[in-house]
Amino acid sequence: METVDPLLIAFLPKDIRSMFFPYASVQLVALLMNLLIGFMMSMVIAHHFRKYASAFCNRQDFSRLFPLLMLSVILIITVVKASLALALGLVGALSIVRFRTPIKEPEELLYLFLNIGIAVALGAGQTLAAILACFVTLALVTLVKRYDVKQDNENGLFMSLVHSSPDGYKDTVVIEKLNELLLQHAQRIELRRIDTDDHQFNATFFVSLNSASQLDDMVMELKQTFEGINISLLEQHNIAGV
Questions:
Q1: Whether the model pTM is above 0.85
Q2: pLDDT at 132
Q3: CA–CA dist 131, 129 (Å, integer)
Q4: CA distances to 113, 142, 222 from 83, in Å
């Protein structure tokens, strides 16, 4: 690796030289350019995450971490590639420092890996490859997302039902009655969860509808069949992984 201009460091004291230029110094101009490029690409990835991701999290706050992650990895890779000793030291440091980041959704991890991959390429000096990979990846993901939206015309909702009955009921009767009622109005239903006790049930269904009138009829019949039922609806794209 090329070092800094000897004329620049010739006037520095020996201790200062050993502190700032211990051996093969990094190319500061290239590092600065890669940091700026990485920052801009991380902002593009963050915008893509906020617009197209379906992760059930605060996407605005989560995407703000991308620039810091990108710049940190670029710096680490740029410094480490200058020395085998630093590379071995990084392995030892990472074996001690354990990160406990509560990432629960695969889509969040995929965007983090994209940032890390681009940052590694920039830190290794593969600037053009990093830029090309970033924009091609985001373009292909965008096309897939838009194609899926156009192809899948299913209007899906998650319906949560809570009902209490002083007379009580059996689990099989409740499930069978709910299935029959919902199928009269929905194109497709899936029972996702049901909790029951002697006098109350709490059920969650995924229901596929073609129109708002079907939903109105379904809600009306549920209220007529189960007096005092509590109905909550959530659009499917607000749930991660669906």
A1: no
A2: 94
A3: 6
A4: 25, 39, 69
